[in-house]
Amino acid sequence: MSSAQQVLPLETAMRDGRARRPRWPIRLQGSDTAWAIAFVIPYAAVFAAFVAYPIVIGLWMGSRPALYATLFSDPRYIDTLVNTLLFVCIGVNVKMFLAFLVSGYFMRRRGWWGRTLLVVFLLPWALPALSVFLSIHYMLVSQWGLLDSLWSAVTGTEGPLFLVSRSTAMTANIVAYIWKWLPFWTLIFLSARMAIPKEVYEAASIDGATPLQQTVHVTFPLMANVYLVATLLSTVWTLGDFSTVYFVTSGAPARSTDVLATYGFNQAFTVGRPELGAAAMMSALPLIIPLVILLIRRLHRSGVQL
């Protein structure tokens, strides 16, 4: 028998093995089944109470078409959509780009100084969001805020009152968001950089590539898959971000910097129209669902490997 004839049955068996899903070899019987059910029930109850039930109630509350007509007739809702797009697009893309650059800096600082600096850099992410955002809020609020006080002490004039202008308040929201989450994604990209074999960079150096050329032509192409998945995941998370805007500016001035999360919260608990708040959050689904589908397909097709 030739070698080709010997290999052919093996390839056929491998294809058949991939086509047929292997059966689960363990079957629970008697008391094992009872114990398995006992362990699953608490998790199923928590999932039903805190995940499934709120989603179903939100969909039911925001299911009336008249609610969306009311939303789109509100000028503040249109401003909120613009704020949300600015917050997500600028915040996510600037954060990811800076995380990519900063991860390269820490990749080249392997000594004790680099490790110490990395620990300090991670502190904003490690601290509770409430502490971080309230600290930024009290730096910015009124003429007694830290930044306005420093401005007055240095220049002898009144500070710019950051939360009085919509542009400066929205900038404060975006900067606070980046400050909070930049360390986390820097750590993700740093881990991805460490997975790249050193031999690749050594070969590029032998070919005369500068550090910038290595970053552009070696590092980024190898990390492109990780970068894309991280950006999609961060976008989905940021669309539902509530704490940043609520604690940094509270929608100031005059709720002109609200995003969808804070607008829906205000409608539900301040105005007293929970169904309108639910509809405001449901209006983000046409954007969230395609992002989730794209993320799942990307993960299913190639994972997050380099």
With helices defined by DSSP (H or I, 4 residues minimum), what is the helix count?
Answer: 15
Q: Helical residue percent?
A: over 70%
Approximately what portion of the residues adopt beta-strand conformation?
under 5%
CATH architecture label name:
Orthogonal Bundle
In this structure, how is the largest beta sheet organized? none
N-to-C SSE string, H for helix and E for strand: HHHHHHHHHHHHHHH
Which class in CATH terms? Mainly Alpha
Question: What is the 3D form?
Answer: globular
Low-pLDDT windows of residues: 1-19
Structural class: mainly alpha
Overall radius of gyration: 26 Å
CATH topology description:
MetI-like fold
According to DSSP, the number of beta strands is 0
Written overview of the protein:
The structure is a single chain. This protein is mostly helical and 306 residues long. The chain has one domain (80-302): MetI-like (MetI-like fold), CATH 1.10.3720. Helices cover 77% and strands 0% of the residues. It contains 15 helices and no strands. The chain has helices spanning 3-19, 31-61, 65-72, 75-107, 112-121, 123-126, 129-140, 146-155, 166-194, 198-206, 211-239, 243-248, 260-270, 274-282, 285-302. Helix 3 (65-72) packs across helix 14 (274-282). It is globular, with a radius of gyration of 26 Å. It starts with a helix and ends with a helix. Residues 1-19 have low confidence and may be disordered.
